[in-house]
Amino acid sequence: QVQLLESGGGSVQAGGSLRLSCAASTYVYCMAWFRQAPGKEREGVAVIRADGTPTYADSVTGRFTISRDDAKNTLYLQMNSLKPDDTAMYYCAAGIGLYDPGDCTLGGASADEYNYWGQGTQVTVSS
Question: Left if phi > 0, otherwise alpha if psi is -120 to 50, otherwise beta: which for 60?
Answer without folding.
Answer: alpha
